[in-house]
Amino acid sequence: MAVPTSYSAASAASDDIDALRHRHAEASDRPTRIRVDLDALTHNLHALRAKAGAPVMGIVKANAYGHGLVTVARHLQAQGVEQLGVAFLEEGIALRQAGVRVPILVLGGIFGPQVAQFIVHDLEITVSSLDKLRQVEAAAEALGHRATIHLKLDTGMERIGVHSYNAGPFIEAAVASSWCVVKGVYSHLACADDPASPMTAVQLERFLDACTHFERIGAPMPLRHLANSGGVLHFPETCLDMVRPGIALYGVLPDPASRRTVDLRPALSLVSQVVYFKVVKAGHSVSYGATWTAPRDTRVVTVPIGYGDGYPRALSSRGDVLIRGQRHPIVGRICMDQFMVDIGPQGTAYNEDDVVLIGRQGDAGIDCESVAIAAGTIPYEILVGLNDRIPREYRGGGLSDR
Ligand SMILES: *Cc1c(COP(=O)(O)O)cnc(C)c1O
Question: Helix, strand, or coil here: 89?
Fold first, then answer.
């Protein structure tokens, strides 16, 4: 096809060119993509709810742990999730603007000027101090609309929340407030990833002890929630009236020490394709800094994804990928947009062969947990690091969910 010399050039080809431009605007043809299996999310939601024996607040902060905020939230809503949780006001507003209707709690600390936005978008507010309670009351009164709040108690995380041993006056003030509806009371576990840690029992005891203030003042007990993924997996007694799993919902364990007490299915795969093939001669180095040198003549392919997509540079000469069902090592430094893989002197791979960075290929698999270990980090950071330069593709779940 003839390529016009300028964007305005009129020619027989311009319709084709327009069609191509249009197609690119709609769906990326980039061979690198994230595939999200919505049926795995459904399975994990039901499995975690059954294990906890409690309603689920699905945590979808940080772009649903890299899986795509709006699509995941709509899907969980369609599957009957009782509530959603996000970190920031902006994430909650994005969900409301996308038409998500289930209750949404914003878990993060609040800033005074934002409070009215929570109320007008029907977002539930985390109130973590008496001061914040007063801010919420003032904003609610000014709007003439009551705010729905969850009281945040600190039982050992020392992040946000009123210390559980000082919670009495805080709870009394919240219950007495005519502009706030106390829907929940919660705290956050610091060590639940590790089934052997004694910290969780201490935190549970502090939390339950603080909750007795509601009874003492004759107030109805709000929803008590404490368990993150680690809590659901390892500490059934922390599940209480609602659970807040994040990473387990996506089928990933929080920590190498975690136990697989629930049958979880990973929802995310990260795939690309071979973009270049060559032979590197013995003694020749690969990539920036020349940190890896071929010990023998070997075949090396290039894969078009890098740390600019959130694939960690720490995997330089440490990570593996799957090509044609075989595991092969990443060699040399990962670049912003590409990296190289040694497929060995006899390896075969062709341009456009599929490359799996996270996920399964034939009988082989690379899970997010092992990628995290190779990169010297935790699975959370791997998932949420995968950024918007990578197109997301959804499978399963039924078309009506999108
Ligand atoms: C992120 C978060 C969760 C979910 O944690 P996971 O370890 O991913 O299950 C639950 N509660 C709060 C307050 C959080 O910030």
Answer: helix
Same domain membership, residue 314 and residue 166: no
Q: Using CA atoms, how far apart are residues 221 and 242, in angstroms rounded to an integer?
A: 13
Over residues 265-292, the pLDDT tens digits come to 999 999 999 999 999 999 999 999 999 9
Q: How far is CA 36 from CA 151, 267, 325, in A?
A: 34, 5, 20
Q: Of these residues, 51, 61, 132, 152, which one is catalytic?
A: 61
Q: What is the pLDDT of residue 25?
A: 58
Q: Do both 123 and 159 map to the same domain?
A: yes
What's CA 156's distance to the chain center, in Å? Answer: 24
CATH number for the domain harbouring residue 286? 2.40.37.10
Q: How many domains does the chain have?
A: 2
200 and 55 within one domain? yes
Active site residue 7: no
Whether 338 and 305 have beta carbons less than 8 Å apart is answered as: yes
The boundaries of the domain holding residue 114 are 38-250
In angstroms, the CA 142 to CA 278 distance is 68
Cα-Cα-Cα-Cα torsion 115, 120, 125, 131, nearest 10 degrees, comes to 30
Confirm whether 129 is domain-assigned. yes
Taking the model in full, what pTM does it have? 0.93
Assigned domain for 305 exists: yes
Handedness of CA 135, 139, 140, 142 (dihedral sign): positive
The answer to whether the beta carbons of residues 249 and 295 sit under 8 Å apart is no
Atom of ligand 1 nearest to the CA of 107: 13
The three-point CA angle 267-352-395 to 5° equals 25
Q: Which atom of ligand 1 is nearest to the CA of 245?
A: 9
CB atoms within 10 A of CB 238: 26
Residue type, 298: T
CA of 186 to the centre of ligand 1 (A): 12
Q: Do 80 and 160 share a domain, yes or no?
A: yes
- Determine whether 61 is an active site residue: yes
Handedness of CA 108, 113, 115, 116 (dihedral sign): negative
Residue 148 identity (one-letter amino acid) = T
